[in-house]
Design a protein that fits this description.
The chain is mainly beta. It folds into two domains: about 110 residues, Barwin-like endoglucanases; about 110 residues, Macroglobulin (MG2) domain (Immunoglobulin-like, Sandwich). It has two helices and 15 strands. A hairpin with an 8-residue loop joins strand 6 and strand 7. It is elongated.
Amino acid sequence: MRPGIAHLAVLLSATGIGLAVPALAPASSGGGGLAGSPPPSSGSSGSSTSPGTGQVTGSAGGMTITTTAAGFLNSQIRFAGHADPSNAGHLIEIERLGHETGWSWAPTVQTRVRSDGSYSVQWQANHIGQFSIRPVLGHGSGGGSAAGGEPTVSMIIYRPAVATWYNQAGTTTACGVRLRAGTLGVAHRTLPCGTKVAFDYHGRTLVLPVIDRGPYGHADWDLTEAAAGKLGMKEAGIVTLGSASLPPRR
């Protein structure tokens, strides 16, 4: 923890103000993250995206899919959409693609098309990172392959984490970055310098590069003052937010 945040923590303790921060595991070392830019849409069309925790919708090949743009680890994520009613009773496999799946499409959850062509199913998110998501018709546990042209959307699964912020303008970070008042970045204990990390705080989202080492207290992340300002967490000082590391695709 930087000196300014350490002072804030002591002040809060002295005044008897408690912080409602749950006990959390250390932030991911990056194994569950995905590329910093959204995965390719595989030719999906009619796609629309809302920021933060809004919805994403894809439409292609006579099918649609809608889900949330973001969710938290272990939360229930709902996928819903439509296929041609002639496919009623057929299996729909929701697949995901990302770093965690080795950049190959992997089965995630199954359901069946209803008589009106609609479908919906929930998945308990079990990994953080950025994922491409698509529905595949008729792809069951016995095998099969996608026909191509399925609607594809992108979403991020965040891990709850504790974050602080610091201001050491004029100094050089452990990653060799000269800090200025407007520098956007984050400190982490182990992630390689330059690794992109996605953050969500009350619907405000930001992707930051790792530019320093730290924090040295109990927090998982230490954001620069400029980054904290963009997320709206400066006044709170110590917050719980969503984080997901985004190591590059290799």
